[in-house]
Design goal:
single chain; about 140 residues; alpha+beta; four-stranded antiparallel beta sheet; two-stranded antiparallel ribbon; 6 strands; about 20% helix
């Protein structure tokens, strides 16, 4: 099952990365679900060092800046990604979710994992998504 953010009540997308259908003389934006179905999805279990950039782009499309905290939690759960939630802390900027996708590849003799941190702003909306490959 593909994990994707479902936006309810949205009929079409006018963002620059939206997909368009050619129906002769004009182009019509596809609905969010139609665009997502046409896109090749990468599940967390399919992430490798070779498709890492595509997966990062997919996550950024699924969780754009401004996505509410509840939608982030639902997305991570739907994708089957175990995560930690770190609440706001005035001593350091730590209102975030973090998760790790293990065993995405091997470089020389080191096992690679993908660490993902989704940082939230003071209104509990996505402000930044950070990706880091760790070698163990």
């Amino acid at each position: 099952m593909a994990c994707m953010l479902v936006l309810l009540g949205v009929a079409s997308v006018s963002a620059p990365h939206a997909s368009f259908a050619d129906n002769g003389n004009s182009t019509k934006p596809l609905s969010v679900s139609e665009a997502a179905m046409n896109e090749k999805r990468i599940s967390p279990s399919e992430v490798t060092l070779d498709n890492l950039e595509e997966y990062e782009a997919q996550v950024r499309r699924d969780l754009p800046i401004g996505t509410p905290k509840e939608d982030v939690e639902a997305y991570l759960t739907r994708c089957g990604l175990p995560y930690d939630s770190i609440g706001p802390n005035p001593l350091y900027d730590a209102n975030s979710f973090q998760t790790t996708i293990e065993n995405i590849g091997i470089r020389v003799i080191f096992q690679a994992s993908l660490f993902i941190r989704i940082r939230l702003d003071q209104q509990d909306k996505v402000k930044e998504i950070l990706f880091r490959v760790d070698y163990l």
